[in-house]
Automatic annotation (TrEMBL):
<keyword id="KW-0369">Histidine metabolism</keyword>
<comment type="similarity">
    <text>Belongs to the PAL/histidase family.</text>
</comment>
<dbReference type="InterPro" id="IPR024083">
    <property type="entry name" value="Fumarase/histidase_N"/>
</dbReference>
<dbReference type="InterPro" id="IPR008948">
    <property type="entry name" value="L-Aspartase-like"/>
</dbReference>
<dbReference type="GO" id="GO:0005737">
    <property type="term" value="C:cytoplasm"/>
</dbReference>
<feature type="cross-link" description="5-imidazolinone (Ala-Gly)">
    <location>
        <begin position="141"/>
        <end position="143"/>
    </location>
</feature>
<feature type="modified residue" description="2,3-didehydroalanine (Ser)">
    <location>
        <position position="142"/>
    </location>
</feature>
<dbReference type="GO" id="GO:0006548">
    <property type="term" value="P:L-histidine catabolic process"/>
</dbReference>
<keyword id="KW-0456">Lyase</keyword>
<dbReference type="GO" id="GO:0004397">
    <property type="term" value="F:histidine ammonia-lyase activity"/>
</dbReference>
<dbReference type="InterPro" id="IPR022313">
    <property type="entry name" value="Phe/His_NH3-lyase_AS"/>
</dbReference>
<dbReference type="Pfam" id="PF00221">
    <property type="entry name" value="Lyase_aromatic"/>
</dbReference>
<comment type="pathway">
    <text>Amino-acid degradation; L-histidine degradation into L-glutamate; N-formimidoyl-L-glutamate from L-histidine: step 1/3.</text>
</comment>
<dbReference type="InterPro" id="IPR005921">
    <property type="entry name" value="HutH"/>
</dbReference>
<keyword id="KW-0963">Cytoplasm</keyword>
<dbReference type="InterPro" id="IPR001106">
    <property type="entry name" value="Aromatic_Lyase"/>
</dbReference>
<protein>
    <recommendedName>
        <fullName>Histidine ammonia-lyase</fullName>
        <ecNumber>4.3.1.3</ecNumber>
    </recommendedName>
</protein>
Length: 508
């Protein structure tokens, strides 16, 4: 797939495709805007008056005037001095998405960069040159300065670039692709460093992974309901219409479709002594529906941010003004990331409760720990413990990052968003939650096996077959970890969602 990136108007589907590895090209219609913005910077400079970020120092040093002869050095220095990140390198798909976000921002003609700078970013993306960007060092205000500085450093031939999974000196990587390192002009270093693109890229990655996680958890939740011979009455549309929550209505409808035509369900419609199921079964529409609404709200915020311009100062060629503001403050991204963290946490939490219910014979009516011969075999005893451990980890990580602020830059930057680490935690949280959903997949399919020869719905039988193609029923204890890895892979890759053969609620 190839994405034609139209700055300011890219869709969530396009950002998702870029994150998943799609090639991209910049809409050439933006070229006049970029050229006009660069020309405006030249005209502003010709006046000889101090303008922040163009001929002054930065941050607390904004009052220091820089002479014309030092303007190129000023821009190079800000890149080198701000490339002060630490920690593990950010995943290449996130860096690539960050670059695409920065490209879309610069190409809107409000940043004052030269066409050659925009072309360099596009060329690096086209050639698969991914700067090595340490994952820590941004507080999410004044932009994601350190991470974006490492990106900018690679563009001027400093630092490292990843090519085909191998790290190499940036200058050598550029040379290998026939690219010449940039010499930054006035405003360009600051334009590359300012902005929320690192935080936004991490948050978007978390959003896209959570969407797949959410859909997978609907499937495993339906399977768990079948395994426990739970009632589908709580999914009746009349219940949810009265509450009017859109996500809840859609989730209940999805669960009904997933379970439609189940012989397991039909087998206990008459004479079922259980009046009400535990909340982990009965309240799936309420919990997962609220999660869905939260995901969509976060998606709206992040799609707007992805299409915005967030560096500083901003150039307005029609009046030749450079206006200094605070678009680099990533509070919207921080809030979106906090919302996603809550959603991820709750997906894992209710999923673990269903696993615990399934292994408890008093609640599920199934053999203890889902093994035909409990005692001799431990069955699913410890996978449930693992799920509980992962839920607890995610609870700790779900503490809002946006409520924290630590002043920086000699108190010039006295309120910050903490969006960067609020966003960075999301992929780790989705990894934990994916493992929890993977355990439920194993447990729920095992539970349904005890109801043979009765079968579930066509959709859920397809999901069962997807797992059973690689993993047989657990008759006696065996090395459990390989089974978990297979199940995790089905969730993470989207194969489980694809297997049911129906559209499930998502971001749009």
């Amino acid at each position: 797939m190839s994405v034609k990136l139209k700055p300011g108007a890219a869709t969530l589907d396009q950002w998702r495709a870029i994150y998943r590895g799609a090639e991209l090209s910049l809409d050439p219609a933006c070229a006049p805007l970029v050229a006009s913005s660069a020309a405006a910077v030249d005209r502003i400079l010709s006046r000889g008056v101090p303008v922040y970020g163009i001929n002054t120092g930065f941050g607390k040093l904004a009052s220091v005037r820089i002479g014309d002869e030092d303007l190129a050095t000023l821009q190079r220095n800000i890149v080198l001095s701000h490339a002060a990140g630490t920690g593990d390198p950010s995943p290449a798909p996130i860096v690539r998405l960050m670059m695409a976000l920065k490209l879309a921002s610069l190409a809107q003609g409000a940043s004052g960069v030269k066409p050659e700078t925009v072309a360099m970013l596009e060329a690096m993306l086209r050639h698969g040159l991914t700067p090595v960007v340490p994952s820590q060092g941004s507080v999410g205000a004044s932009g994601d300065l350190a991470p974006l500085a490492h990106m900018a450093a690679a563009m001027i031939g400093v630092g490292e670039i990843q090519v085909n999974g191998r790290h190499m000196p940036a200058a050598a990587a550029l040379d290998g692709a026939g690219l010449v390192p940039l010499t930054l002009g006035p405003k360009e270093g600051l334009a590359l460093l300012n902005g929320t693109q690192f935080s936004t890229a991490n948050a978007l990655a978390g959003l896209f992974e959570t969407e797949r996680l959410f859909q997978s958890a609907l499937i495993t939740g339906a399977l768990a309901t079948e395994a426990a011979k739970g009632s589908d009455t709580p999914f009746d549309p009349r219940i949810h219409a009265l509450r009017r929550q859109p996500g809840q209505i859609e989730t209940a409808e999805a669960l009904r479709r997933l379970m439609a035509g189940s012989a397991i369900r039909a087998s206990h419609l008459d004479g079922d002594a259980r009046v009400q199921d535990p909340y982990c079964l009965r309240c799936q529409p309420q919990v997962m529906g609220a999660v869905l609404d939260l995901l969509r709200q976060a998606a709206t915020m992040l799609e707007i941010e992805a299409n915005g311009v967030s560096d500083n100062p901003l150039i307005f060629p029609d009046t030749d003004e450079a206006l200094s503001g605070g678009n680099f403050h990533a509070e919207p991204v921080a809030f979106a990331a906090d919302m996603l963290a809550l959603a991820i946490c709750e997906i894992g939490s209710i999923t673990e409760r269903r696993i615990a219910m399934l292994v408890d014979p008093a609640l599920s009516g199934l053999p203890a720990f889902l093994t035909p011969r409990p005692g001799l075999n431990s069955g699913f005893m410890i996978p449930q413990v693992t799920a509980a451990a992962l839920v607890s980890e995610n609870k700790q990580r779900a503490t809002p990052a946006s409520i924290d602020s630590l002043p920086t830059s000699a108190n010039q930057e006295d309120h910050v968003s903490m969006a960067a680490h609020g966003s960075r935690r999301l992929l780790d949280m989705t990894t934990n939650a994916t493992a929890i959903v993977g355990i439920e997949l194993l447990a729920a399919v095992q539970g349904c096996d005890f109801h043979a020869p009765l079968q579930s719905s066509d959709a859920l039988e397809n999901a069962r077959a997807c797992l059973r193609a690689d993993i047989p029923m657990l008759e006696d204890d065996r090395h459990f970890h390989p089974d978990m890895e297979v199940a995790n892979g089905l969730v993470r890759s989207g194969r489980l969602v694809a297997a049911v053969g129906m559209d499930l609620p998502g971001l749009q």
